[in-house]
Amino acid sequence: MIATSLLLATQLVVWHSYRADEQKALEQCVAVWNRAHADVQVEALALPYDGFASKLEAAIPRGNGPDLVIFGHSAIGDWARAGLIVPLHINDDAIAQFLDGTVEPLRQNGQLWGAPLAFKSLALFYRKDLVAHPPATTDELVALAKQVKATEPAGHYALAYEAGASFYHAPWLHGFGGRLLDDAGKPALDSPGAVASAAFIESLAAAELLPPESTGVVAAQLFNDGRAALTINGPWFVGEIARGVPFGVAPLPTVSATGKPAAPLVEIEAVLMPARGHAPEAAAAFALWLAGGEAARIRARIGRQTVAARAAWDDPEIARDPILSAFRAQLAATVPMPSSPAIRQVWEPLNQALRKVLRGATSARPAMLEAQKRVVEALRPPPPRAPGAPYALLFGVVLVGAAAWAWRRGRAAGGLPAARAQSAAYAYLAPAAIAMIVLVFVPFAVGAGMSLFWHDAGHWTFIGLRNFADILASRDAPVTDPLSFYFTLAVTALWTVTNVALHVIIGVTLALLLRDPLLKLRGVYRVILIVPWAVPNYITALIWKGMFQRQFGAINGLLAAVGLHPISWFSRFWTAFAANVATNVWLGFPFMMVVTLGALSRIPKELEEAAALDGATRWQRLRHVVLPLLKPALLPSVLLGAVWTFNMFNIVFLVSGGEPDGATDILVSQAYRWAFTRGHRYGYAAAYAVLIFALLAAQTFFAPKEETAS
Amino acid sequence: MAELRIEHVGKDHGATRVLGDVSITVADGELLVLVGPSGCGKSTLLRCIAGLEELSRGAILMDGADITRAEPRDRDIAMVFQSYALYPHLTVRDNLAFGLKMRKTPKEEIARRLGEAAEMLGLEKLLDRRPAQLSGGQRQRVAMGRAVVRRPKVFLFDEPLSNLDAALRGQMRVELMRLHQRLSATMVYVTHDQVEAMTLADRIAVLNAGALMQVGAPSELYTRPANLFVAKFIGTPEMNVIDARAAEACRLTAALPRQVASVGVRAEDLRLAPGGVGAQVDVVEHLGAEALVHLRVEMIELTARVEAQAVPRSGERVQVAIDPARLHLFDAQGARVDTPQSTVDSPRIGTAKP
Question: Do B72 and A609 touch (CB under 8 A)?
Fold first, then answer.
């Protein structure tokens, strides 16, 4: 009986990206539901957060999507537009069971798209052993900060948080009356409120009330060490607080200048309904139940979630929880995360503006004006569609020409009979050729083809060579601006030349030293020098980045030990560039050293003996005999090294991250940002890639050829 | 030009003794040839003289000055390597001028010496070529030219003709002799080929396993070898060495003193004439003007040099006799034993000099 009903039961699949306690809570809810509903069985599937969106985008159109998905509300804009989700019907009584402010963000274009499960926003974390009462206004905050600066030892701060990140700055922005996007969805970074918020943190930084270079990791470290009394973070931070630290959570202070509360962005975690679900009514029922009081209580208790259902807050255990209550109190003063695609273009320019202001490189107003300009430029409409006919014609001509040329070559080489006679050779070549075609040529062709299109949220428009024209005419920015192709090209050229020169000099010098038979323990030195080569360069980059960190890095520690002033490595171009170069040189010299050692072993010993007898000193032997003979052997390696360095994404991206403001970015990391950070401009980034390829191909083609004389 | 004195020189390579205790004096203007089988230490000795290897024992003096610890560049020595060691990235001209440039010689002086050397060795037309564009013989001459322009006190040659074919080798040997005559330079020449040694040398030093076997003029080594090793090493074909008691038994020789363990006789000193001991002709090697006849006397094998007219046929029975005055006597240790009989006053050197 039960078996039959189970067979007839509707199976629902829910996708989510919860972990740890939240995952346990969800699974508990699912268990409770399944016990009570034999006819609708639910299965919860945990997916990694990173690939979530793309998995949905791939699966739903094919009908392979889940019945429900748990995600933040800010995805609704894109997914609704793309037709990946359908509205969820909730009647007004049901809506009333949720806290104010948790349902509105789910409403778009007049329709409701999900049932709210929980809300997540920033709040103020404070250490109970350092402050009795957290500051309620910004004036109190500033006063506290000044007091800490005056009385506590250096390195102690009142507040430490990720000040340079737009998401963490948003509370101040809203508190000063500004908005990220106005009602029409246009960026509003140049509004008086936004500028005032930037001026606020400028004044904090100028008075040294904030730690310099404060990343999330640094802020957490300071808070845990007791060197910061306050930090601004979200519910996820609870897990990062060290054991034994007495902490509390409070709503963010009110901005004294405006009387408005500092209002963080809030993300409503909701159950959304994908399109093409096979049991929409059952799914809707489960969705509402999951959002409702009973399940919310489980989620709040076990998953420690700040749930949207009012009923759960009636539970004394949940109501008494200080942390949950604090976040709930904060909810009243939050601004929903905008869900329009325009918001994606806001983050990077605003981040840059904030970092500039914090560094003291510019003042608030010009920085915000520049950020606004950048966002507006990034949001410009796509170029007009180009006629496809001339390109198709050109492509056809090239294809026919290539075919004709290939045919004539084949005929000259003996034609089909000759090919058949060598069929064994072709058979041996075939696997490698197929692999090359599939792994190299096809992706290359696709990438090159992509460069002729404009991509915007899934829509591809053919625009011919317009991308190339825009890049080469430096349309995005003046030539001296890091966003310009030419600026980045110059930086890349400088980067390549500097690195290769240092690699060669250090590698050759060490090789010459190593081959000296007087050097004992040669084997040991060899191994030590090859270690940099053996460690994966991703790890090397992260280690060096840590070493160059302003407060805790080893380099500044060394400088301090010899009495020098610590340097903020990533706030100026030359120091950030030097940090990148140092890392890359450490990584790259073993290659040159090993190549040189090999080349040296092929120089007959007698040549140097003859030179010695001829009267040459060691230095003269080196200059007139060894180095000239080394040159042709090193040339291919230098060329290879130059190409690798030109495209060395890992180091530039991981160590300096392009700081300051993208100045140390090289062509390949800029291309990455165009593709993945600045609104998925795949076509534009592909054009960048084609240009990089063309540059490197030209370099290889025009490189000095080796001499053929032995 | 200088006198070179090698005094009690020894070299160890780890546990191996490469050179034992070698003492030789090379007179001013002399061409000394170091000869011996592979591994005898002749190249090592040469490299020690050049300063490319360190001595373990002993000293080297040039014109009285001790150069044992001096750097190669300070010894005023030029060396011609077996592989020529020409600088591949320089033209012939720059190769020749290299040493002079290193010593900051003025340009006119370089040009003058270059011209001289080029004329001496026939390199005028090759000056702008690279070593890769030269033949083996041309490269050899450039290597020699490079040594010549420096006008060093001593020339060293490390088997310079080994890489050349036979015809070229003969030509170059003559060139070298001419060079030696023209420059009157002190030269030390290393080779494993005893023909080269015999033709070129003023004196020969024979080395074996790091020890000096004998030093002397070619004729002296040929007619009065100091030991069995030198006796067998010098001379083509190899000297016939017979166990003394066996020789007595076959009546090839008269009774010999007890201390004599073996006797040697050169191929040209065996006479095929009636009145000797009966022998069976084994094989005959015809060389044109003469022939090498391989005989057997009972169990003893001998090789005789015979003029073309008198050559016997294979399988024939002949009679062979040894002139007692031409016998070389050696004791059980291989050292020469001198008896009144074996005074060699008229050296018959055979076909040693072409």
Answer: yes
